[in-house]
Specification:
Layout: H1 9-12, E1 13-25, E2 34-36, E3 40-47, E4 49-54, E5 57-62, E6 66-69, E7 73-79, E8 85-96, E9 112-113, H2 119-134, H3 139-158, H4 169-181, H5 188-195, H6 199-210, H7 214-232, H8 237-243, H9 249-260
Antiparallel strand pairs: 1-8, 2-7, 3-6, 3-8, 4-5, 4-7, 6-9
Helix pairs in contact: 2-3, 5-6, 7-9
């Protein structure tokens, strides 16, 4: 089991990469035991099936699964199919900057997390491997940035439970339209006609892809914009309500507090 998720940790977590590599081995090949004594370890399975024995517990992994070993864990890996196995792996230290320099932290992931293969994750790992091998000027900063993006994607998949990898061009077009016209009244019928779908069917397609209804997505978008405007210090609560499509400031206040958890005035510097 992974440690409980503490939201504040995201702001203070600092990883330090020790090694990056791409593993590839044939069927029924057993890797030597490896122990995550000092560093943490992540392995992301790209192809094949792997049998892991993690701290004495046996489990299998396939394409898209993530192995996470915190310091002290012991793991054995074996290919368990006729297909060769390949995976990206990273050894790293992890610090909690709230507790001072060198204070250890731990990711809120279980030893094995399961999901479908993610093209964006594979792309980020490929860039990480290239930067590690070539070591061009500034590569350390690039490694840090890429690895943080990888960790953020895993947080989306396993902690926040958000899948931002939307491939349906109709949904992408709808989201782009909402981003540009969030302050307007946007009927579902208008959006459905824009991409050639029946409104009722379109709503079901949108919710399946995003996890929320069109109405909920519009509110979510408006609240994000409202937060930005309020934090800028250039907008009053009433100005923000109007800029985000609310003619009734009191209604905006209630929706904002329900969505964000605080009153809008508290964000004005």
């Amino acid at each position: 089991m992974g440690d409980p998720y503490v939201p504040e940790m995201d702001k203070y977590m600092f990883p330090e990469i020790g090694n990056v590599f791409f593993r590839k081995y044939g069927p029924e090949r057993r890797l030597k035991d490896f122990r995550a004594e000092g560093p943490h370890h992540l392995s992301y399975v790209v192809n094949g099936n792997v049998r892991y024995i993690i701290d004495g517990q046996s489990c299998s992994a396939s394409s898209g699964d993530l192995l996470y070993l915190a310091p002290g864990s012991v793991c054995t890996a074996n290919a368990c199919s006729n297909k060769p196995v390949s995976c990206f792996s990273v050894d790293f230290q992890l610090y909690d900057l709230r507790l001072g320099k060198g204070a250890a932290a731990r990711l809120p992931f279980p030893a094995l997390s399961r999901t479908d293969p993610e093209k964006d994750v594979i792309s980020l790992f490929s860039q990480l491997i290239t930067a590690w091998r070539e070591k061009e000027p500034g590569y350390a900063l690039k490694l840090q940035g890429l690895f943080l993006l990888i960790l953020h994607r895993f947080y989306e998949l396993y902690v926040y439970k958000v899948n931002t990898d939307i491939h349906d061009f109709r949904i992408k077009k709808t989201i782009s339209f909402i981003e540009a016209h969030y302050s307007e009244n946007i009927p579902v019928k208008t959006l459905g006609e824009m991409i050639g779908l029946n409104p009722v069917y379109f709503e079901s397609v949108f919710k399946k892809a995003t996890g929320v209804s069109l109405h909920q997505y519009l509110i979510k978008t408006r609240m994000k914009k409202a937060v930005d405007l309020l934090k800028s210090g250039e907008y009053t609560v009433n100005d923000t309500a109007e800029a985000c499509g609310y003619s009734d400031a009191l209604y905006f206040y209630k929706q904002f507090k329900a969505a964000v958890g605080i009153s809008p005035s508290k964000l004005i510097p």
